[in-house]
Amino acid sequence: MADKTEVALDRTQVKKAVQALQAFLKTKSTSASLFLDEAQQMSLLFTLWKVPRQAQTIRIPLPHGQRPDTDEVCLFTRDEPNMTSEQTQRFYKRLLEEKGVKNISEIIPYKVLKTEYKPYEAKRRLLGNFDMFLSDDRVRRLLPSHLGKHFYQRKKEPLSVNLQSKHLARDIQRLIQGTNLKVTNKGCCCMARVGHSGMTADEVTENIEAAVQTVVAKLRMKGPVMKLIHLKSQTSVALPIYTSDLSLLTTVKEADKQAQTPKEKGGTAKKKAKQKQTENDTKQTDTAAEGKGVEKKVKKKKAAAEEEEEEEEEIPQLVPIETPSKKPKLEPLKKKQLEKAPKPAAVKKGTKAQSKLTKKTGKADSKVKRKVPKVK
Question: What average pLDDT does this structure show over 320-331?
Answer without folding.
Answer: 56
